[in-house]
């Protein structure tokens, strides 16, 4: 990733924006971090300062009462600061441990507002994987702000406190000295020491920036490896065990993550940085030691101050180097922040209408496809072409056709996951794009074949919420034929699906899980019910049971079926047959099965032969 040239002001705004996101996600984090940095800064200086006072008193008047007061203040103050620092540290530790999950949740939450086409865009998916890869490998992006800002604030406080304690080091005494000691007793030492410290800070910053760049350049192609890690984490246990996929995938993951190029780049960059900074620090320590020793020799400072300044000047130097280094890291990290912000703020260009969808007790809604054609973004081929049809209110519509005929695309347009490329879709005679998007979406309840259920309770999955109407949940489970099974469980509808997180969970069969997905579609109680292969995972007996209950399940709703099992079509009022993106037939089962030249007749008899032989 190329580091974009930005002004210091632009970088500062990016960091502030990142801090604002963290403040919104975890309001207590920033205050805890500030107070933690203050106590961390004071904790080493306080006993150091008090020790200097005690040593001066011992080498001076040696007043026992003053020594006792100094000792009591040192012990009690250090204890109080240590306890407060430990408390703040434990709180920050807990919050930091959740930081990765909060970042992931932030990305996930943003995706809820994406256009559906963004979720199917491979370039956007690659961007998402790059963000995840940098988070996994180096905590780059939002996470790194937490660590860098803590260190940055710590270093600033250390510079302020150590400078305040070290100012007296540069005072002069009235006696006359020549040569080196004359220089030490002059004000020329201020720019000289400042120059040494400045040079060391710049060198440390350059070494850190160079090492960070080399490491991150080596990590630039980790998006593919991140996909591999995600696949390893989410692979089914049965496949992993039977086919020993764990050995293969883990070996591949380790091979990628620990491949020679990455390891060599990381070790080389970190070693050069560590050795370079260590050499710079040693040289500065020598200069500081000689300077403070000379000051003590000429009598400008006492023994206590000599010990104090050895610590404070070193801390000033290392903290100033830390500020410049972390400033460089923050600016470098901003390229990942920009990428993350671009993703979080992905523009939703889908037009959101302003008309309210009429709330009708008689659910008298009518949908019309008027000369609708559609092709997917980045594709030149038409997925649907010149589709014209109306839904009769309360009717049961089956959509059939071979794979790739346009069935799923038809449903995506109906649910307004995409808008037509040409033509219009009308609701009660009005273009659906003119309605408020969320209100229009509320008209549809969909059970997709590739449904998603979570390892929560049955009730939470059916209600799709933590707020549950138990009677409604039980009614929906009864209508899909799963009530008896649920009643037999000790925890009933509060039984977790799977044992992924709880030992008393239940591993439901594929057919039972599909029934739960159907119950969820019923629970929403929308006027239009869309079922994508609703019986694909059911055995023939369970399938027959669902169809027998079909009129009760669908009630007075307008229902749309996508089905490959044409036996389900016999229960529908009308059948739409798609072929190569076009609606080629529309009619009842009796009408279409009688047309020997039609596509439906071909599909019906292709399946029927396996049951009649």
Strand content: 5-15%
Describe the main β-sheet briefly: 6 strands, mixed
**Overall radius of gyration:** 35 Å
Distance between the termini: 63 Å
Lateral strand order in the biggest sheet: 6-7-8-3-9-10
Question: Any overview of this molecule?
Answer:
A hairpin with a 2-residue loop joins β9 (574-579) and β10. This protein has a domain at 8-26 and 98-219 and 264-344. The strands form 2 sheets. A 6-stranded mixed beta sheet has the order 6-7-8-3-9-10, sandwiched between helices. It has a 4-stranded antiparallel beta sheet with strand order 2-1-4-5, covered by helices on one side. With 613 residues, the chain is α/β, with parallel strands linked by helices. Helices cover 61% and strands 9% of the residues. It is built from 24 helices and 10 strands. It has helices spanning 8-25, 29-59, 64-97, 99-111, 116-119, 122-138, 142-166, 179-184, 189-218, 223-234, 237-242, 245-257, 260-297, 303-344, 407-414, 437-441, 458-463, 470-479, 483-487, 510-524, 540-548, 550-554, 589-594, 599-612; strands at 367-374, 384-390, 396-401, 422-427, 430-431, 444-447, 528-532, 558-562, 574-579, 582-587.
């Amino acid at each position: 990733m190329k580091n974009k040239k930005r002004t210091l002001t632009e970088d500062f705004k990016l960091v502030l924006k990142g801090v604002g996101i963290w403040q919104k996600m975890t309001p207590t984090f920033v205050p805890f971090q500030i107070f933690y940095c203050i106590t961390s800064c004071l904790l080493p200086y306080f006993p150091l300062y008090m020790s200097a006072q005690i040593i001066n008193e011992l080498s001076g008047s040696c007043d026992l009462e003053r020594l006792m007061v100094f000792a009591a203040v040192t012990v009690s103050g250090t204890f109080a600061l240590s306890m407060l620092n430990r408390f703040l540290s434990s709180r920050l530790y807990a919050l930091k441990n959740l930081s990765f999950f909060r970042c992931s949740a932030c990305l996930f939450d943003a995706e809820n507002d994406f256009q559906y086409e963004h979720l199917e865009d491979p370039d956007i998916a690659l961007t998402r994987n790059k963000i995840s890869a940098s988070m996994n490998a180096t905590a780059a992006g939002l996470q790194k702000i937490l660590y860098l800002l803590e260190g940055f604030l710590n270093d600033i406080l250390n510079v302020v406190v150590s400078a305040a304690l070290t100012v007296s080091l540069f005072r002069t005494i009235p006696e006359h000295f020549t040569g080196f000691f004359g220089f030490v007793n002059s004000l020329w030492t201020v720019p000289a020491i400042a120059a040494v410290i400045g040079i060391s800070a710049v060198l440390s910053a350059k070494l850190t920036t160079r090492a960070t760049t080399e490491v991150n350049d080596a990590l630039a192609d980790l998006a593919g490896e991140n996909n591999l890690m995600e696949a390893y984490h989410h692979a089914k246990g049965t496949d992993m065990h039977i086919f020993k996929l764990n050995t293969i995938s883990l070996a591949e993951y380790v091979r990628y993550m620990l491949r020679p190029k990455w390891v060599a780049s990381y070790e080389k960059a970190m070693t050069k940085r560590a050795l370079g900074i260590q050499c710079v620090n040693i040289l500065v320590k020598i200069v500081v030691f000689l300077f403070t020793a000379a000051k003590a020799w000429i009598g400008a400072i006492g023994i206590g101050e000599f010990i104090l300044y050895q610590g404070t000047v070193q801390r000033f130097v290392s903290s100033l180097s830390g500020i410049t280094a972390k400033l460089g890291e923050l600016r470098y990290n901003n390229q990942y922040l920009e990428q993350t912000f671009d993703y979080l703020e992905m523009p939703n260009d889908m037009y959101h209408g302003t008309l309210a969808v009429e709330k009708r007790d008689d659910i008298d809604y009518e949908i019309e496809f008027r000369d609708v054609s559609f092709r997917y973004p980045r594709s030149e081929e038409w997925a649907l072409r010149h589709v014209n049809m109306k839904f009769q209110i309360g009717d049961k519509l089956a959509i059939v056709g071979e794979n790739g005929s346009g069935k799923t695309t038809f449903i995506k347009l109906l649910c307004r996951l995409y808008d037509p490329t040409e033509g219009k879709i009308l609701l009660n005679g009005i273009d659906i794009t003119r309605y408020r998007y969320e209100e229009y979406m509320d008209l549809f309840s969909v059970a997709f074949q590739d449904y998603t259920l979570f390892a929560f309770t049955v009730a939470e999955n059916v209600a799709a919420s933590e707020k549950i109407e138990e009677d409604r949940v039980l009614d929906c489970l009864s209508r899909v034929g799963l009530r008896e099974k649920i009643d037999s469980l000790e925890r009933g509808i509060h039984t977790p699906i799977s044992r992924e997180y709880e030992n008393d969970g239940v591993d439901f069969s594929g057919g039972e899980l599909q029934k739960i997905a159907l119950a969820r579609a019923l629970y929403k109680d929308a006027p239009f019910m869309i079922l994508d292969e609703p019986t694909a995972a059911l055995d023939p007996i369970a399938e027959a049971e669902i169809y027998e209950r079909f009129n009760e399940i669908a009630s007075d709703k307008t229902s749309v079926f996508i089905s490959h099992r044409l036996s389900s079509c016999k229960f529908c009022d009308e059948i739409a047959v798609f072929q190569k993106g076009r609606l080629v037939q529309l009619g009842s089962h009796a009408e279409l099965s009688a047309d020997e030249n039609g596509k439906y007749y071909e599909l019906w008899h292709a399946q029927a032969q396996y049951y009649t032989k």
